[in-house]
Amino acid sequence: MKNMLMSVLALGVTIGLIGAGTYAYFSDVETANNLFSAGTLDLQLSEDGITYYNDPVDPLIVCVNMAPGDETDPATLYFKNVGTMDGIVTVDVSYVEYDDPLDGNAAYEYAAVAYGTDVDADTFAKHLWVTHASLDVGPNIVYYWALQVVDYAYGSDWDAAIAAFAVYDPDGTAGNGDELPTAYGLSKITLYFWDGYEGTNETFSPDEVHYETLQVQLDPSVGNEYQFDGINLSIVATIIQVPET
Fold first, then answer.
1. Burial class (CB in 10 A: 0-12, 13-18, 19+), 205
2. CA pair distance 163, 130, nearest whole angstrom
3. Contact present, 195 and 142 (Cβ < 8 Å)
4. Among 106, 157, 205, 210, which is 20 to 30 Å from 34 by CA?
5. What are phi and psi of 208, to 5 degrees?
6. Looking at the predicted structure, is the pLDDT value of residue 129 above 80?
7. What is the pLDDT of residue 117?
8. What predicted TM-score, i.e. pTM, was given to this entire model?
9. Which residues make Cβ contacts (< 8 Å) with residue 149, sequence separation at least 6?
10. Calpha distance 142→106 (Å, rounded)
11. Mean local confidence (pLDDT), 196-219
């Protein structure tokens, strides 16, 4: 009986020890709050360097009533990074046909249909020369733009680019530095904010402004069929994050 009692007591102690193992240790939990937020890239445009817009509805540059040989006054377009991150800006040019409201005249429309005198957007753009382009009052870089059109859109073939009216060569000597890109030619490439041919891209820091000044000329050789016709030219500017080096 004594041996049996001791066994029962021993069993009881063993169970007690097992039970004691189920109690939790003291603990304390602390939480650190961390913030991860994406920066912003936001580019806005202005025609006066004072009031900036996102996707302005009204044209920033307007030139109407051009006659053959007319050259516009210099027009400046400002680009401002209003975001929180550094960015590089690229510019793409596109256009659609513009018909003057007077083009609705029934007699003119009859003539356009009968004699084929209506000029489409591509034809007009091929005869709209870019005679001056500068960045932040830098040097005239129209030749660099013409060279980029030739290299990137026509495989460095000057004759092909000139024949396509993507580049205008005033003296018939291709590649001597006096060539002008046309609006049609610029629509074939992407432009960067640099002051030379494939120079260093300009970085737009937050609140930084750069601007581009342009002049264009209507080919002096165009005829009466260009009356009432034109293009709405869009400059689509894109800001991208500066790649890590």
1. exposed
2. 17
3. no
4. 205
5. -85, 145
6. yes
7. 64
8. 0.79
9. 161, 166, 167, 181, 185, 186, 188, 189
10. 40
11. 89
List phi, psi (to 5°) of 229.
Answer: -105, 165
pLDDT at 17 over 80: no
Half-sphere exposure of 187 (CA within 13 A, CB side): 21
125/119 Cα distance (integer angstroms): 10
14 pLDDT exceeds 50? no
Q: What are phi and psi of 77, to 5 degrees?
A: -120, 125
Contacts of 92 (CB under 8 A, 6+ apart): 187, 190, 191, 235, 236, 238
Helical residues (DSSP H) of the chain, grouped into ranges: 2-20, 106-115, 121-126, 142-148, 158-163, 183-186
The DSSP secondary structure of 95-146, one letter per residue, reads: EEEEE-GGGG-HHHHHHHHHH-----HHHHHHTEEEEEEEETT----HHHHH
For residue range 147-158, what is the model confidence (pLDDT) as tens digits?
999 999 999 999
- Residue ranges per structural domain of the chain: 43-241
Could you tell me the two tokens for 173? 């000597």
Q: Provide the residue type at 34 as one letter.
A: N
Identify whether the C-beta of residue 184 lies closer than 8 Å to the C-beta of residue 165.
yes
DSSP state of 57: S
Q: Give the pair of three-digit tokens for residue 41.
A: 């890239």
